[in-house]
Amino acid sequence: MKSMVFKIAVIAVILAAGWIAVFNIPDAIEGFLPAVKTVTMSPTEYSQTVSGAGVITSEHDGEWYVTVFVGESDIRRVEVNQPADIKGAAFDDGVYTATVHGIGELALNRQGEFVHETVVEVVLRIDNPDEALRHGYTARADIKTDEMRTIHIIPYSAILQDDIGEFVYVLAGNTAVRRDILTGIELADGAQVISGLNVNDEVIISPGTLSENTLVSKHTVENQEEAE
Fold first, then answer.
1. Any idea what DSSP says for residue 80?
2. Residue 18 has pLDDT above 90, yes or no
3. 16 or 113: whose pLDDT is higher?
4. What is the pLDDT at residue 200?
5. What does each C-alpha distance from 66 to 58, 106, 135 come to in angstroms?
6. Burial class (CB in 10 A: 0-12, 13-18, 19+), 58
7. Phi, psi at residue 135, to the nearest 5°?
8. Distance, CA of 13 to CA of 126 (rounded, Å)
9. In Å, how far from its chain's centre is CA 118?
């Protein structure tokens, strides 16, 4: 009992001093430390996209098409035969795939939500039509304008920011260590990490009030969904 009290007292001194733990902490002592969850960077397939909104049409040739309007600042990135994903309110969470079939030769002036905008008409042929499609449905096309590539992301809940910039806490043994990072592409599941982390680094999610060199108890989550 005295030995355990002594160990707890030692840990308390270490926590107060902010020292980095360079030794193995007994399980009984680890139970007194703040519990954290960690993830490693998640590889994700990504392609840059250009988006446009429009309507679905059916043609006499039995094919289904989507005619959308793309802003003049983005149209230079669109080419015939590029792949696209088609989404719409009528499809719930379903996604159709499509291919750019044609690009208009004239720019048009349209009334946007707040201002007039200059757009170009883009027609896409749907690759996988089914009985759920209806002529006149509204749709959104996300046209993939470059090759698919793998990027590495971490959950937004792991990213902190101060006057220096963005950073995360990673585990070194039982210690939370700051790593300054540079982020890039922002996706629904998290942000791309351009620099500052290695693929095997254990990144603390929802670090709360942790500070540099805090001793912690680790719990690794299985996937990104648990991290959100």
1. T
2. no
3. 113
4. 92
5. 9, 18, 10
6. middle
7. -60, 130
8. 66
9. 30
Long-range contacts of 28-32 (CB under 8 A, 24+ apart): 28/4, 30/174, 30/217, 31/217, 32/8
Structure token digits, residue 81: 């035969």
> Would you say the pTM of this structure is higher than 0.70?
no
Rg over CA atoms, the chain: 26
H or E segment to which residue 183 belongs:
strand 182-186
Q: How far apart are CA 94 and CA 97, in angstroms?
A: 10
Mean pLDDT calculated for residue range 2-10: 49
- Distance (Å, whole) CA 31 – CA 176: 16
Q: How far apart are CA 168 and CA 181, in angstroms?
A: 7
Q: What is the DSSP string of 91-141?
A: GTT--EEEEEEEEEEEEEEEE-SSSEEEEEEEEEEESS--TT--TT-EEEE
Concatenated DSSP letters of 145-174: -S--EEEEEE-GGG-EE-SS-EEEEEEETT
For tokens 């470059």, name the residue: 146
Q: Hey, is 20 helix, strand or coil?
A: coil
**Per-residue CA distances from 71 to 97, 137, 174 (Å):** 21, 21, 51
| Nearest partner of 170 among 36, 66, 59, 2, judged by Cα | 36
Per residue in 48-103, pLDDT tens?
899 999 999 987 678 999 999 999 999 999 999 999 999 999 988 789 999 999 99
